[in-house]
Amino acid sequence: MLNMANESDLGSILGFCSGDLIGTRIACYCLSYGFDRDFFDVWISFSDGEIKGVVAKFYDNITVKVVEGCDIREVRDFCDMLSFNELVCDEYFSSNSGYTHSTVKKSYVFRGNADCESLRNIDEAYYKQIYSLVSQN
User: Fold this and answer.
1) Which residues, in sequence order, are CB contacts of 31 under 8 Å at separation 6+?
2) Could you read off the pLDDT of 104-118 as tens digits, one per residue?
3) Residue 131: helix, strand or coil by DSSP?
4) What angle do CA 42, 117, 86 make, to 5 degrees?
5) Distance in angstroms (rounded) separating the CA atoms of residues 133 and 100
């Protein structure tokens, strides 16, 4: 079951979202904007009293973090109902929900293992080169 989150849920959300890229994105939104903004909302998916998923909507962009035991169909149906321009999720949600680059127009689906170890393996030289080009303009 999905419930709208509020300030009292912050600690639980931060605990659930720690340790991976997708969760960090959600945690940063929560810490930056809180729960009283027109442009930002968060919902928590519970199963057996435990958090199994978090859905964050920032303007027209949705970020989804789920773990095994989450009702993927409920979360997908909820995202469809919300409508979005961009969807950011990990491969687990993507493969179990059916969302792909080809099925969701104007979407971005984060593919691959989004844990901290995989981020260490990114070709930093490539991104540093891009950043230097952007920061010069």
Assistant:
1) 10, 14
2) 544 445 444 444 444
3) helix
4) 35
5) 30
Instruction: Convert 9-55 into a string of H (helix), E (strand) and C (coil).
Output: HHHHHHHHHCCEHHHHHHHHHHHHHCCCECCEEEEEEEECCEEEEEE
- Residue 87 β-bridge partners: 62
Q: Which residue has the tokens 């968060």?
A: 42
31: its two tokens = 């810490």
134/62 Cα distance (integer angstroms): 26
- State the amino acid at position 106 in one-letter form: K
Assessment of whether the complete model's pTM goes beyond 0.90:
no
Give the span between the Cα atoms of 22 and 14, in whole angstroms: 12
The structure tokens 């904007």 sit at 33
Q: What is the sign, positive or negative, of the torsion defined by CA atoms of 93, 90, 92, 36?
A: negative
The residue with tokens 């909302």 is 41
DSSP three-state, residue 56 = strand
Q: Which of 12-26, 45-59, 65-79, 112-126 has the lowest mean pLDDT?
A: 112-126
